Amino acid sequence: MSGPLEGLRVLDLGTRIAAPFCAGLLGEQGAEVIKIEQPGAGDFMREIGPFLSVDGPDGEEGYSLFWAVEGRGRSSVTLDLRREAGQDLFRRLAATADVVVENFRPGTLEKWHIGPGDLDPKLVVVRISSFGQDGPYSQRPGLDRVGIGYGGLLNLTGYPDRPPVRVGVTISDYLTGVFAAHAAVSALYARDARRSGGGAVIDAALYGAALRILEWTVPAYDRLGLVRTREGNRLANSAPLDNYPTADGKYVCIVAGSDANFARLCRAMDQLDLLDDPRFAKLADRAEHGDVINGIVAEWTRRLPAAAVEEACVACDVPVATAYTAADMFADAHFAHRGDLVEVDDPVAGPMRQQAPFPRVVGEEVPVPTGAPRLGEHTRDVLGGLLGLSEAELDQLADDGVV
Amino acid sequence: MSGPLEGLRVLDLGTRIAAPFCAGLLGEQGAEVIKIEQPGAGDFMREIGPFLSVDGPDGEEGYSLFWAVEGRGRSSVTLDLRREAGQDLFRRLAATADVVVENFRPGTLEKWHIGPGDLDPKLVVVRISSFGQDGPYSQRPGLDRVGIGYGGLLNLTGYPDRPPVRVGVTISDYLTGVFAAHAAVSALYARDARRSGGGAVIDAALYGAALRILEWTVPAYDRLGLVRTREGNRLANSAPLDNYPTADGKYVCIVAGSDANFARLCRAMDQLDLLDDPRFAKLADRAEHGDVINGIVAEWTRRLPAAAVEEACVACDVPVATAYTAADMFADAHFAHRGDLVEVDDPVAGPMRQQAPFPRVVGEEVPVPTGAPRLGEHTRDVLGGLLGLSEAELDQLADDGVV
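The joint structure predicted for all components is written out below.
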């Protein structure tokens, strides 16, 4: 893909989501991304569902659609980093690169003699982990849920009368990936635009990404002793505000807490008499009678399909959102106009719609990523082309199981 | 603050969260950030809770801790952009800047003659909005909940037997902010390192940021017709895995779906006999008997405080996380070691702990942002210093209500 980072090369040593996502975002800005995978196995994302049934060499097999998204926009080279020959090849590849992204447990690259100290200091090395590169928990195993747990986002999400609920996607993985991409490009800016000459080693911990977006939670404890917890969809000091059920089994989120929006909503519901009810006169009154006013709004939404609720709210300038499913997105005029669902040509599964690169640049086409590569699809091209290995050398490496 | 973007200047025209957060992240990488606020009112974040009681000119008043976090790391200049004199001064300020970040409804800057077409094309202009700069919904009002609603994240979060639940923080705001910061620095890289000369206009929509991280949701609908929905904390194909209650009223998330982690968990619980139970032999067996095995784990956690559950799991290398509150973070050795809670010196409220800038650079101190500025605190310094306005001119502007 073309883009502002064209000409830069990124080595993606990551598995699962956070680190490969970071590398992929650099790719969506124009960098070349080469994924390094363990021979035979490859990224774990290749093995988790949902699966599409495709023709394989031994008949029908399952192809991971999760991999199809997270693996896109890069080439795949197999290299056994647990072996010296693989480590040597990696160091040679890194000498041609600008960024390395990895998410092994802290210390693993060093054990393999391919840590930042073994590589050119001009490299930007992005190290993603659950708990960071140092500290008492740094060697603990972790996953996205560990990130949202320690990072405090888990405890804030859900209903007060139930256990906290995870965010529906692996949010600390994605957050960490994009924060790390931002920091990596900033480091490249210093190196190449300000000519600092040096790279940087970025330490991005899953729990830290969640913590960074925790709003006022930390100072409110420090200065008020307030231990924030989850509130569901409503807020104690604002109403009406909730996700309301509709006649067609969907949910619409209506945000009409402010006096101005409440008046607009009354017009949208054609219930202007509510404005004369002293229980709903001001924000504080409505908050006090939150169950009543939220109940009245729910009664209205229950009689209508989501599209009709939306239309009435939009006509009166009330903030509204249907809780969209993929089916809603595929049918939506705005998504179609904006080209939010791009067709990616997957080498195994053929064309499939995926979420577009984000954000976009005004006046430029939304770039379309290449499909997720087959395991080792580019091993020979990359090791031959970039490192000048001969066919015979490549055959030997393959025989030895190094690639 | 020093950092890789030192020497760059960012004008923050934003209000609320997404756009100011984007500007602040550029600041945490070293750029100078100047916030432009409406005289008299300023950013809405100054007016929302939770509030700390402080001494004001007219006695006790409430100071927004949300503002203290989101407003940090920048100076404040008041400027009425609805008036020609304010617009003129803004264009002169923009001529000294590298980045402008804004989140007015699309078309507003143009109406005020300060849109990208009125400014130097070398600028990077980040435009954040609910629905993007074009398309049928672009003029609709919106907020974070609209972003997660249309972006599909809302529908995926929560329990299957309840309405979808919002993520506990304004996640589409934060996500959009960091994606936009990444894109802005990439555009600066092209301009200054690759000497493309030109800036860029970045169109970042709240719903698009949520959509981008939707995992496999889009292709699964496209190729399998699968309409994904929320699953709570458990997964249909994996167990044990849940947020379990503890004796001290907390919740611990334990992830032990895989055969290896399940065996470790049985050791942690000192219930090795479970490994011989055919109902729990393999992942698929445990998934089939998910209620039973999750119930057994919950029975164990209910007898222990969260710290003891954690300790037992960590000793056996089982991924575990307590759903941390702020109180847990303040008491945590890892947070202390890593310096995750920095002391920011707020000009109104004095020192307070806040979440640290993220991510960090290995070998460098975590930078400490300056406290959130008082409204217009730097108006005279900036307009005098950068634009060379005289004291008399500044007095006149103040009298006219332009600043």
